[in-house]
Amino acid sequence: MMLSARPRPVRVVSRVVSSSASSTAVRVPNRAFGAQRRQMGGRASSNLLSAAAAPSAALSAAACIVTTTVGNGVSNGAIAFMMRHRKKLAKLGRPADQRKALMRSLTTELLRYGRIKTTQAKAKAMRKPVDHMITLAKRGTDWDMVQAMAYLYDKQLVKSLFEAVPDRYSDREGGYTRIYKTMPRRGDNAPMAIIELV
């Protein structure tokens, strides 16, 4: 009795190689089993597709699909996470929605009172939205006012901001806040700071 000359499909076993959760998690294919690999002539190829070429709703934007093909088209859909270069963001120990609400609240209070006391991390994180609101007020178009009203919690504050800012900061291009470091907070010894409008 003669055996069929058609090669059997090759099984590919994968193992997960991972370092930290934020840097890499790559599934690397092991070698196929010896006899079957020799039967296939030892052909193996690996393609790395970019995240833009193969997007997936279940994956983050940094993820991409690694397709490993051995012999006659057997492939595995391994996941590779790329490194988060230039994506530094002060997370402040909160999820994204709470962090955004905190930044909106702190920005509103700083623009209302001109000076607030908070932790150093929050003070450094809120500089960017405060500068952005003042830049919108300096330009003063209708669409800039719509954007400011969508971000700040006090609508009356937006109107007074758009009236006062063009005269106050007409000669200054950015850097509208100043941070002073103060004594640590009692209880948890958190580093505190005073942030104020220049």
Keywords:
198 residues; alpha+beta
Low-confidence stretches: 12-33, 44-70
Q: Report how far apart the termini are.
A: 92 Å
Structural class, from secondary structure content? alpha+beta
Average pLDDT level: 76
Query: How are the strands ordered across the major sheet?
Result: 3-4-5
* Element pattern in H and E: EEHEEEHEHHHEE
Count of distinct strands: 8
Beta-strand percent range:
15-25%
**Residues in helices, as a percent range:** 25-40%
Biggest sheet descriptor: 3 strands, antiparallel
What Rg is obtained from the alpha carbons, in whole angstroms?
Answer: 28 Å
Q: What is the count of DSSP helices, taking H or I runs of 4+ residues? A: 5
Shape: globular
Quaternary organisation: single chain
Concise synopsis of the structure shown:
The protein has helices spanning 34-39, 96-113, 120-139, 142-151, 155-168; strands spanning 14-18, 25-29, 44-48, 63-70, 74-81, 115-119, 177-181, 192-197. The chain has 198 residues and is of the alpha+beta class.
Overview of the structural elements:
The chain has 198 residues and is α+β, with helices and mostly antiparallel strands. Helix content is 34%, strand content 24%. The chain has five helices and eight strands. It has helices spanning 34-39, 96-113, 120-139, 142-151, 155-168; strands at 14-18, 25-29, 44-48, 63-70, 74-81, 115-119, 177-181, 192-197. The chain has a three-stranded antiparallel β-sheet, with no helix packed on it. The chain has a three-stranded antiparallel β-sheet with strand order 6-8-7, with helices on one face. Strands 1-2 form a two-stranded antiparallel sheet. The chain is globular and about 80 Å long.
